[in-house]
Amino acid sequence: MPTSTQNSPEAVPADAGASAAFENTAPAFSPLYQQIKTLILRSLQAGEWKPGDMIPSEFDLAARFRVSQGTVRKAIDALATDNLLVRRQGKGTFVATHAEQHIQYRFLRLLPDTGSLEEQGPAERRIVECRRLRAPAEVARQLGLRTGDAVLQVKRVLAFSGAPAILEELWLPGGPFKGLTIEALSDDKGPMYALFETQFGVRMVRAVEKIKAVSADEDTAALLGVAPGYPLLSVERLAFTYNDEPMELRRGFYRTDARHYRNELS
Amino acid sequence: MPTSTQNSPEAVPADAGASAAFENTAPAFSPLYQQIKTLILRSLQAGEWKPGDMIPSEFDLAARFRVSQGTVRKAIDALATDNLLVRRQGKGTFVATHAEQHIQYRFLRLLPDTGSLEEQGPAERRIVECRRLRAPAEVARQLGLRTGDAVLQVKRVLAFSGAPAILEELWLPGGPFKGLTIEALSDDKGPMYALFETQFGVRMVRAVEKIKAVSADEDTAALLGVAPGYPLLSVERLAFTYNDEPMELRRGFYRTDARHYRNELS
DNA sequence: CAGTGGTCTAGACCACGAG
DNA sequence: TCGTGGTCTAGACCACTGG
Asked: Hey, what's the signal peptide range on this chain (chains A, B) (predicted)?
């Protein structure tokens, strides 16, 4: 039945026997592997497998979805290029995670002008502020909330070898991040996104950044150790979980005297 | 024989009969589809098929390389995700091109803050300068030339609806671009990379950008219609042809008052 | 050694585009 | 109607990892 030509989207049963009613009007054709991809995605969202876990083998999934191994493979391939899964030959396929993934700061594109990331050493983090407040209109709009909904605001400075490099301000929806405290943030080692995963079950999947050049205002200048008016990179990031649900709005000011934002185009 | 397990890299004959000496030491294993990908890439570099051309069908290539259609397919898939080929169902597979590709400015990430690209209208281009000179050390280094080698320098301003937005300065290696004149550049409609393709057979394949925030100096400020000291995005782009050969160094200053540099992370 | 992902094949059939 | 790319299958074998 999966062999059927009349594939209506989402017609593949996850587990049960075979009997998907034929749609006589099937304008939207969706390939099987796409449907399988969606089903796997659902399991990921539902938390059936947690970040870092190994998912069932291709053959197991093929049996479960009643399709061939090759079809499951195409679905997993797609999820792997989306960075949701990671394949490891000889071991298995794993749910991607921000933790234990040696590349710290997966979304940070700021690199030292000279020298490597390693010799730069780890970032020193200082939380400047962390409070609960009602979402301003613009923040609410971008996070898909209503104006006045509860949000968390976090402000912090990142420094390398004692030299401040980034000042950033985050807004997080109050619901999913209920219970996040300044202590948890301060005590934490490792990427913030890793903490979001382990403590709140929120996994960031992709993000969009809008970059501008701005002049430092007085407060920002003071925190970054530059003169007011100093040119800074303004990086506004909206990060999404599964299903393109916005989960974090972040506005960063980057010093770019000894560092640059690197981007690859193709 | 392509079925052989003892695949030594590059061992697949393009056309001739079968007789690849078995390497008894074969530490580097390269899958067949990778080798096919390399062979297709060579044909692209050699100009066997020009930008915009349709390449032979998957079955034809499979016959030519003595492998199955599925293997050719994987090779083409890889080249397509690298943006070197474009598949069009029902028509064929084509060599990617910067021309006739409705997205003008494939590498330009500057978008209007409000409204769409369409309502912004086409960019107005004004060549400020175009001259031949000896490469400064830094330019030579990045382009893989020797200091003092001939390079072309072009300086131009891009404006939208009469408002200047970008000032950029380009360096091109003198050899491949012999004969490029200010007239050709000024007369040209369409993306500069399209002109490079059609007139010089140089196709840009990927690029790396380094972005910083800077203050406008007097000259730059005047050309962009802002006050000196105004914060600008400095975008340094190194663009590559096939084989990761650097072919263009470009330094742009972007006004970001009504526009932003957009980047997608995943 | 067994179990996992990775490669390759051969063949069937579908969707799309153009004559 | 034909030729192209797109999907799906079934099965064989290889490469890597770990017990």
From this structure: none
Same domain, B92 and B117: no
Closest-CA residue of chain A to B208: A264
DSSP state of B53: P
What is the domain count for chain B? Answer: 2
Q: Are residues B157 and B42 in the same domain?
A: no
Tell whether A238 and A138 lie within a shared domain: yes
Indicate if A235 and A133 belong to the same structural domain: yes
A103 vs B contacts (CB less than 8 Å): none
Determine which of A1-5, A241-245, B99-103, B169-173 has the lowest per-residue pLDDT on average.
Answer: A1-5
Residues near A128 by Cβ (< 8 Å), separated by ≥ 6? A155, A156, A157, A167, A223
pLDDT at A159 > cutoff 50? yes
CA distances from B87 to B33, B53, B84, B92, B206 (A): 17, 12, 10, 6, 19
Helices A32-46 and A58-65 cross at an angle (nearest 10°) of 110
- Give me the domain span that covers residue B201: 110-261
Which has the closest alpha carbon to B174: B129, B127, B134, B128? B134
Question: In this structure, is residue A28 part of a structural domain?
Answer: yes
Residue entry with tokens 């390399």: B38
Residue A63 Cα, gap to closest chain B Cα (Å): 24
Residue B114, Cβ density class (10 Å: 0-12 exposed, 13-18 middle, ≥19 buried): exposed
A128 and A196 housed in the same domain: yes
Q: In a 3-state reduction of DSSP, which class is residue A161?
A: coil
Cα distance between residue B27 and residue A223, in whole Å? 54
pLDDT at A21: 36
- Residue at B103 is within a domain: no
β-strand partners of A158: A125, A166
How far B260 CA sits from the closest chain A CA (Å)?
5
SS3 A229: coil
Residues A128 and A225 in one domain: yes
pLDDT at A168 over 70: yes
* B266 found inside a domain: no
- Say if A104 falls within a structural domain: no
What CA–CA distance (Å, rounded) separates B111 from B229?
23
Å between CA of A135 and C1' of C12: 57
Lowest mean pLDDT among A72-81, A117-126, A195-204, B245-254: A117-126
Name the closest residue on chain A to residue B113, using Cα atoms.
Answer: A210
The verdict on A134 and A87 lying in the same domain is no
pTM of the model: 0.89
Which pLDDT band holds residue B130 (cuts at 50, 70, 90)?
very high
| Beta-bridge mates of residue A57 | none
